[in-house]
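Workshop exercise sheet. Pairs work together: one partner reads the sequence aloud, the other fills in the structure field after running the prediction. Swap roles for the next sheet.
Pair: D.N. / O.F.
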Amino acid sequence: MLRIREELGDCQRCKLASGRRNLVFGVGNPAAELLLVGEAPGRQEDETGEPFVGRSGRLLTRMLGTLGLERRDVYICNVIKCRPPGNRDPEPDEVAACSPFVHRQIQTVAPKVILALGRFAARTVIDVDAPLSRLRGRDASYHHIPIVATYHPSFLLRTPVMKREAWRDLLRVRRLLAAAPAG
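Structure field:
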């Protein structure tokens, strides 16, 4: 993982670099069975350099707890490593500039399951241009690693009624982890 971070360096590959405070690479267990991919850093992530802090991060930590996991047990990263202004959606050129790094992070960790949080994460990892509603519940894989697409924690904070659907996705993650061969 260190080699990927060093290669990324003080990334200037897209226009987001000029507005960032910190590049948000990823954190967690580099040998994790579960890898979580988010979309892009928000304001607090940009300030700290760590993915999923603040309210979304606290919800994500609770979600992991329902699986019997802590943040230190998993690896967490984003497709985009710099904060888009005003937390806007990542643009195609930004995804194109950053996605090789998230793909290398996934390959390096080699998890048993990938949890894609939000539509841009799901689209990037599954490599299908479709709404999240069509990606959720679908069998997908990344180099034979099962992918579960679910709602981003920030969406769940804005739309709490969807937490039940996210819970179903987490149960699927639990089943996939339990069924995965021991590594």
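Discussion prompt: DSSP finds eight helices and six strands in the chain. What would you look at next?
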